[in-house]
Amino acid sequence: MSASSPADTIARHFLDARRSATGFADYPGTVPATLDDAYAIQAVALSHMHDPVAGWKVGRILPPVSERFGADHLAGPIFASTVFPADDDSRGLVFADGFGAVEAEFLFRIGTPPAPGQTHFTLEEAASHVDAVHIGIEIASSPFQGINQHGPAVTVSDFGNNNGMLIGPAIHDWQNGAYADQRVVTRIDGEEVGVGTASAFANGAIGSVSFLLENLIARGIAIEAGWWVSTGAVTGVHPCRPGQSVETDFGPYGTLRCTIEAQPPR
Is the pLDDT of residue 137 over 70? Predict the structure, then answer.
């Protein structure tokens, strides 16, 4: 792909804005019409990154938009420099002049990559590649202020609107599936902003893992042991801004807290 291609121009604009922590209001080019177009932009941006990938976020695409795009999930990379253990001093970095949000998530870790040649995964097959499940928080942020207003292809084109992940305690008995029915609550500045369960997802959280394995293989991306899968917003996507405090309550699995701060230039 040439340096002057539309995909390269869009990818470089997003990368430059992320590095300078500069927000912008207009999409930097022609909005991708399909998810394939969007993943092509994402691939170009990935080729310019030196930060290792530590995992992938999976977001849901709901009807009727899912019918238009022919998919009910989307994916974006999570980079190692943005992944931290959740503790009492946790912070989430958002682009102050862009879009910022938090999402309560169940995080699945890949223990064993799939064997070469496998391209489709049942839920049971996907689960067999998981060696741990933790509670966590995804920091959803982009320099593009309108990233969540123009559909999933735009979201995909800027790393799936991801800017980090906080990893909380492990769920040691995750194989029994009880975590999926756990009521999860998100609060911002002490006010409840969302409630939900992973069992409300189509095919549950493990369905996000199945989707991601198939998505990455179809895109020619080799899956690595140790990668995390942020499986989707359990309580919703909750906009936030620097200075706010976030609490995600997973009941007996733990409560995570973080303070939102402005992303500095990199």
Answer: yes
